[in-house]
Amino acid sequence: MKLWCCLCITEDEEEDNLNLMKEDDISGKDVVPGLGDGDANDNRDHNRSIPSPTKTLGSWSGECSAVECSDSVAAGGAESRDLSHKRAKFDADFEEVHFSTNAGTCGASNEYGDYDYIKGSLRPNVETCYDAFGLTGAGEGSAFGSSIVEDGEGDDSDTSKVEDVDARMDLTDDLLHMVFSFLDHPNLCKAARVCKQWRSASAHEDFWKNLNFEDRNISVEQFEDMCRRYPNATAVSISGSAIYLLVMRAISSLRTLEVLQLGRGPLADTFFHALADCSMLKKLNISDSTLGNGIQEISLNHDRLCHLQLTKCRVMRIAVRCPQLETMSLKRTNMAQVVLNCPLLRELDIGSCHKLPDAAIRAAATSCPQLVSLDMSNCSCVSDETLREIAMSCANLSFLDASYCPNISLESVRLPMLTVLKLHSCEGITSASMAAIAHSYMLEVLELDNCSLLTSVSLDLPHLQTIRLVHCRKFADLNLRTMMLSSILVSNCPALHRVNITANSLQKLALQKQDSLTTLALQCQSLQEVDLSECESLTNSICDVFSDVGGCPMLKSLVLDNCESLTSVRFSSTSLVSLSLGGCRAITTLELTCPNLEKVILDGCDHLERASFCPVGLRSLNLGICPKLNILSIEAMVMVSLELKGCGVLSEASLNCPLLTSLDASFCSQLTDECLSATTASCPLIESLILMSCPSIGLDGLCSLRWLSNLSLLDLSYTFLVNLQPVFESYVQHCIRKIASMLLIRHIQSSSLKLTFGSDSVENTDTQAISLVQMFSNDIFFWQTSDLACLLTVLPLVIIALRATIDNLISLIFGGPISNLYLHWVLKLQACKYLTDSSLEPLYKGGALPALQELDLSYGTLCQSAIEELLSCCTHLTHLSLNGCVNMHDLNWGGHIAGVNMLSITSSYKNIHELSEQPTRLLQNLNCVGCPNIRKVFIPLAAHCSCLLFLNLSLSANLKEVDVACLNLSWLNLSNCSSLEVLNLDCPRLTSLFLQSCNIDEEAVEAAISRCTMLETLDVRFCPKISSMSMGRLRAACPSLKRIFSSLSTS
Fold first, then answer.
1. From the centroid of its chain, how far is CA 486?
2. Are residues 577 and 598 in contact, defined by beta-carbon separation less than 8 angstroms?
3. Polar residues compositional bias: what residue ranges (predicted)?
4. What one-character DSSP code corresponds to residue 886?
5. Residue 451 backbone dihedrals phi, psi, to 5 degrees
C-alpha cells in the first residue's frame, strides 16, 4: 500500500523563504525556493522546467503553495549555508511533539482523518505546521499520523535551543535527493517528519510522479487538491465506484499524464471522448468496468496511445483508432464486435472473448499487418479459414496461442515465422496437423497438451527447443530430430510405446509413467539426466541406450524406479554418476562397469541374485535389502562402508576395496572362512567388522584378522565359536606391527641410536627378557629397512612367552607405557553359548586385550567365578554388558573380592602391581538386564568405581538387595525387580532413579533418596507399596526432585 505525503508551512516560514529568495537573487544565484542550492544546481544541469513559486501545484484555499510546504531552509537562513560548496547544514530540532486526533470537515472516511484535520488547520495566521501527513489505508493512520510542532519552529527564538543541542550534519540537497530516490512513499513520509530539510527533499516532485489511489476512499475535493499539488504527475491509479468523477478531474488537471489505470467502476462515453485532451497519454489500463451503458458502441481515438488493456470489461461494441498503438489486450471482455484501426499494432490478446464471432476475429487480426503476437485462446469460434487469412495478412506473426479452439486442425495453414505455438486441448489437432507445423521452420516452443486425437508426432525442426505432450491419451509414437532441443516433457500418455529423439542440446529427459513404452532410441550428445520412473514395459535393451556404445555419452543421472519388466541390468558407462533402480523387483542380475558411479539405489530389489560392481566409484553401498543375493563382486577403490546385513544366502563375495573401513555382514549365514580371509587380505584398513549370526565362520576365518591392523570393533555375537585364541593372537600382532613401524621411524630419525639399561631396569626380568632387551639395544637400530620385516616373525613367540614383562619392556624402549601403543577395541560376544570359561581366561588372566574398552557378553554361559574375575581384573573396560547371564548370582565388589581373589588373580603381575593396591576401574556403563539369578549388588566406595555413570539392573526378578556407593553415578534403573527389599544409595550425583514395578516400601525409598542430593527424576509407577499420597514425603526427603512418576498421577 502506498502512502502520499503532503507538506505545508506557516506564513512566518513563507516570509523566511521569500526573504531567502531575495537574498539569492541579489547574490546572482539561480535558487529554486524550497529545494535548496543543491537542487537548483541539479535543475540547471538537467534542464528541468521549474514553475514559479506562485504557480507550482496551486495553493490550498489560497493560503499555501506546494513549494512553500516543501521548505528546506534551516533556522538562520543564508547563515547556515555554504554557498560556494553547496553544503547544507542540518539543524536538529528537538521541540516537543504531540499528536492530535481531531477530525476535519471534508466528509471522507476515518482512514483519511489526518488529511481532514490538516486541511482544516491550513488557514491564515495559523502558527503551527505539520511535518508530514499521509492518505493512508485502514490501520496505517497511526503510523503516519499528524505530527504537530510547537510554535516558533524555525524562528530566531529557537536558534539558541538548536545551538545548545549542537547536532549538525553536513548533507547536501543533492545527496538527500539521491538517497531518497531509493525510498518508497511510506518511508518518504517518515523521512519528512525529521526536519525541514528532509521535509523539503522528500516532497520533491520526482518522488511523486505516480499517484496511486487504488482501494482508497478519497473524495473529489481531496483528489483535486492532490492534483493541484503535483500537476506534473505522470501516472494515476484509481479504483472504485467514483472513478468516473475522479478520472475526469485527473484529465483536466494533469496535462503530463502518461499512464492511467482504472478499475471496478463505470465509465461513461464522455470519458473516452475526453481522453483526446490527454495528449501525453501512452498507456491505458481498464479492468472490471462497465464501459458506457454496456450496450452502446465505444469509440477510442488517441494519436499517442501505445498500450491499451481492457480486461474483463462489459461493452457491446468497441472501435479503436490509435495510429501509434503497439499492444492491445481485450482478454475476458464481453463484446460481440471489435473494429481496429491500428496499423502499428504488434501484440493482440483477445483470449476468452467468447461472444466474439469468427468473422470479427478475422477482421480484427487481418487489419493489423504488423502483428507479431496473437492470443485467441478460448475463442471457440475460430476456424482454419481465419488462421489461413491471418497467416497471409500477418507475415511476421511469431507467437500464436490457439488453445481450447476445438474447430482448428491447421489444415493448409502456413506460418513460417512462428516461434511459439500453443495448442492445448485442441480436439481437431491430429497427426495430419504435424505437416502444417513442420512448415514452421523457426518454431522454438510447441505445446500440445490434452490433444486427445493426436496419435503420433514426427518433426524435424532445427530450432525447436521445448516440446510438451501431457495427457495425450492416444499418443503412441514420438520421433523428433532437432539439434536445439533443450526441454521435453512427456507425461501421462498411456499409449506411448516408441520414442526416438535426436538432439545435441537436450540435457534433461523425463518420461515418467509411460506404461506402454518399450522402445527408446536416443542420440543426445549433451543429455545428462534421464527419468524413466514407472515405465513398466521397458525391457533389458534399455541398458544399451545408456551405455558408452549408446547415444548419450554425457549421461550422469539415470532413474529407472519401478520398471518392473527389467530382469538383467548391465551398464558400462564412464560418465554415469547416479543410478536408481528402486522398486525393480524383477531384477536378478546386476552388472555395473561405471568407474565414476558414486550413488546407486537398490531399495526393493529383493530378487537380486548376482551383483557385480567392477569398477565403481562408490563410497558406500547397502545391499542388506537384497536377501536373495548369492554372488557378489565389488571393485571400488574409494569405498569406505559396505553393508551386507541380511544377505542370508550370500556364499561368494569378492571384495577389492583397499579403503574399506566398515563391513557389516550380519546374518550372512553362508559366509565362509575362505571368503572372510580373502576380504581381510584385500581390505586391510577395516576398522569395524560385524559378523553377528555368521555360523559358518570358524577359527580359520578368525586367523585372517591378523591382516586388519586397524580393527577396533569386532562383533561375533550369535556364532558357534569355541575358541577366541586367533582373536587374541591377531591383536598381539597388531601391536607388533605398530611397534615395528615406530622402530622404523626411530631408525630413520636416528640411525645411530643405542639403548643402555642399568641394573635396575632389568632386575625383575628373566634371562629371555634380558636377551630380548640386548637384541633391541645392539641390533635392531642398525638393521636395514628390509630386515625389519623379520621382526614380525621373531617377536610374536617372544612376546607371547613374555606377556608378563612386555609392558615393562616397551616402557624401557619407548620411554612410556604400552597403553600408548594399544588399539582401542570393542568386542561383542552375545549369545556365544559355546564359549567356555577357559575360552575367555586370556581376557582376565593373561591380559590378552589390554585396550579392550567395550565388552558384550550378554546371554552367555560364563560361571559366577569367571564373571567376578572379569569384573575385578579388566579395570580398563568402560562399557560392559552382562544381560541375561543366568549363571550370575551376585555382583559383589566388596573387601573379599578385592582382597583374596585379587591377590590370586594378579599373582602373575607381581612385577607390575603391588598386592595391596587395587586398580582404579574405568567402567562407565554396566548393563545387567534380565539376570534372573542375581540376588545382591554391592558396590562400595572401596571398589574404586568413580567413573561409573550408568547402571542398569532392570528385569532381575530375584534381586533383593542393592547397596551402591558411587560418587559419579547419574542413572540407575531397577525397574521390574519385583523382589527388591533393601535399597542403600550413596550417590550424590544421581539424577534419575527408576523403580517401576518394584515391591519396595516407602520408608526404604525415602531413606535411599535422602542421600541423593541431585536427584531430579524418580519413577515409582506400579509400585504396590507406594501410594500417590506419599509424593509429598518423597519430595521432602529429596528437595532436588523435579519429576515423580507414579501409577495414579504424574507430578
1. 27
2. yes
3. 49-59
4. T
5. -85, 95
